[in-house]
Design goal:
alpha+beta; 4-stranded parallel β-sheet; 25% strand
Length: 292
């Protein structure tokens, strides 16, 4: 069966190049790369796709395309609800806490005064993050009241409405490393340490990868997280602590170029396998309904 696959991406990074290369090797895939900057919804014909894989770096564009696509019969990887939950750190943390999945302590505040109180409730050092963002941008560790006041004042004067929401997180000492695990549906397919000279370990900030074993603890916490967030294709970032593994953040458009160096699995191929499998399962369900 031919699958009409769309890849939603306005920037073609190494990850997208690898996915496109893999898709073009497969005779059962008709590929369309969709740049959301170059379409209008009314004339896009995206509803003719079988499946749409979200690789869009702009969270707002991804939100809107996936929400509009949720009204069609196209299978989405990931669906709008997952993109919305994982794209906002406050939503992510609230969901984790509600389902009793271990995560660092956090507060969400809505003006400068309550943000300062939230920081002092958490205790120093604390981490201030934008609710929407990636690559470690605009993330600050504050070690005392003076630095907290300065950081909060700076955020309060930024233009984006996202900076009027103050997300405050407990700082967990990890020795400048964290773990990125990749999960496709119910299967954890690989994990890697990310380590840096800086406490922010993102690959975009120079973090380097090394192998991390797929322990029972890792599989259990990442599997539980995937179920709570609706399955799909996720990169889950974890912190090692004296309380065990903690879920730090969840990424719904997984970046894997650095982690591939430390993971034996072919992540682009596995991601495409999962995406096509979701489309085929959706087609089978639709076919069976027609037979009833």
């Amino acid at each position: 069966m031919k699958i009409n696959l769309g890849i939603l991406a306005s920037r073609i990074r190494l990850e997208e190049k690898l996915l496109i290369k893999e898709a073009r090797k497969r005779s059962n895939i008709d590929l369309r790369v969709v740049d959301p900057r170059k379409i209008t919804w009314e004339e896009s014909n995206l509803q003719e796709l079988d499946v749409l894989l979200d690789r869009e770096i702009s969270q707002s564009r991804a939100y809107h395309v996936m929400e509009l696509m949720s009204r069609t019969g196209v299978k989405l990887v990931n669906d709008f609800e997952t993109v919305q939950l994982c794209g906002d750190k406050a939503f992510t943390s609230v969901k984790l806490k509600k389902h009793e999945i271990p995560t660092p302590d956090f507060r969400v505040a809505f003006d400068s005064e309550s943000a300062l109180k939230a920081v002092e409730d958490i205790g120093y050092p604390a981490v201030l993050k934008p609710v929407d963002g990636s690559w470690g941008r605009m993330v600050a560790k504050v070690g005392n009241r003076e630095s907290a006041e300065a950081t909060i004042e700076h955020k309060a004067n930024l233009d984006s409405h996202y900076h009027s929401i103050f997300y405050v997180q407990e700082f967990v000492e990890t020795g400048n490393k964290d773990i990125r695990a990749f999960v496709l549906g119910d299967e954890v397919v690989g994990a890697a340490y990310r380590e840096s000279d800086h406490w922010i370990t993102n690959a975009a900030r120079g973090g380097e990868s090394s192998p991390y074993p797929l322990t029972d603890e890792l599989r259990d916490i990442v599997g539980a997280t995937s179920r709570v967030f609706g399955g799909g294709a996720l990169a889950v970032d974890l912190l090692e602590s004296d309380r065990g593994l903690l879920i730090n953040e969840i990424n719904c458009s997984m970046e894997f170029k650095e982690s591939m160096k430390a993971i034996d699995e072919d992540i682009p191929a596995r991601l495409l396998d999962y995406t096509i499998g979701q489309a085929e399962a959706s087609e089978e369900v639709a076919h069976n309904k027609c037979l009833v």
